[in-house]
Amino acid sequence: MIPDFVSDLRKAVGPDCLLWLPGVVAVVRDENRQVLLQRRTAAGLWTPLSGIVEPGEAPAAAVVREVEEETGVPVVVERLAAVTNSPPVQHSNGDRAQYLEIVFACRPAGSDSSPRVCDDESVEVGWFSLDALPPMSDRMREIIAVVEKDETAAWFAPVE
Questions:
Q1: Which distant-in-sequence residues (6+ apart) come within 8 Å of 129 by Cβ?
Q2: Cβ(29)–Cβ(117) under 8 Å?
Q3: Looking at residues 46-52, what average pLDDT do you find?
Q4: In this structure, are residues 104 and 27 in contact, taking their beta carbons and an 8 Å threshold?
Q5: Number of other residues whose CB lies within 10 A of the CB of residue 5
């Protein structure tokens, strides 16, 4: 779902303008070290849960909201794991964007962590073992690997 503030921006600048947007990524791991993933409607590939930070919303609150909206699984943020940026993307509606990605390590908040598809952004959601991840981009595998290292300091992409 496109947030209202992004729709308002698009009305002003059109779909060809590359928007720089704040995004969050949740690498949710359960007690068995499985990772919660979604198969996105748009590209059909599996990814960690992600979304756009709303104006005035704290990134940690945004990641909790996004995971619950997309899977029904309430989560607790454990730590900031990484800050990076996505490559520029062109969405199926023609809109162009690039995302500042704030990556959080999360865990389920309660005993019921059974995911379900809760919106039109996903066609499937589920838990996956790290040694049996479904088809996904190398970038998404790298993000999961960064979180799996359990470093106390956040990872930043090298400055080029």
A1: 32, 33, 34
A2: no
A3: 96
A4: yes
A5: 13
Joined tokens for residue 147: 């979180």
- Could you tell me the two tokens for 101? 């990605």
**What is the distance between the alpha carbons of residues 26 and 36, in angstroms, rounded to a whole number?**
9
Angstrom CA distances, 31 to 52, 102, 113, 123, 127, stand at: 27, 23, 11, 25, 11
pLDDT digits (tens, 9 = 90+) for 55-84: 999 999 999 999 999 999 999 999 999 999
Element (H, E) at 13: helix 4-13
Reference 74, options 33, 26, 121, 119; nearest CA is: 26
Q: Which residue has the higher pLDDT, 157 or 24?
A: 24
Q: What is the pLDDT of residues 14-42, one digit of tens each?
A: 888 999 999 999 999 999 999 999 998 87
Is residue 52 helix, strand or coil?
Answer: strand
The mean pLDDT of the chain is: 92
The answer to whether residues 101 and 141 touch, using CB atoms and an 8 Å cutoff, is no
Q: Are 104 and 26 in contact (CB under 8 A)?
A: yes
Cβ 86 vs Cβ 101: under 8 Å: yes
